[in-house]
Amino acid sequence: MPTSRLTARAAVAGAVLALGLLMAPAASAARAEQTRTVPSDTYTVTARTDTYVYAGPSTSYPRRGLLRAGHAYPADCLLMGDVVAGDGGTSGVWIHVLGDKDTGAGFVDVVFLQGDDHAGLPASARC
What we know:
alpha+beta, four-stranded antiparallel beta sheet, two-stranded antiparallel sheet, 2 helices, globular
């Protein structure tokens, strides 16, 4: 095979790899979204303070809405994400809330929810 074809293939392979690395958070969120479509138990979590709901388990994801302090929301699973400090503690556990008429589904760090270090969800309720 001519050298120019090998060089072109290598360039294409490098571009595909770079694109894959750049899109890794989006791909990870897409996999989490697919995982959550499987029917599961639903739990209730209560916001300790007003807090944002994010599209993924990090404050770098887009905001989907706001949970209001003292209000209860349905949730279905948890996963590890970025560590967040707030409300007197730190945690990397994020709860997937299903949302309501005002708030879209997404993730909230457990430090902003009432309850234990899993906001009352069993450790087995993984996303």
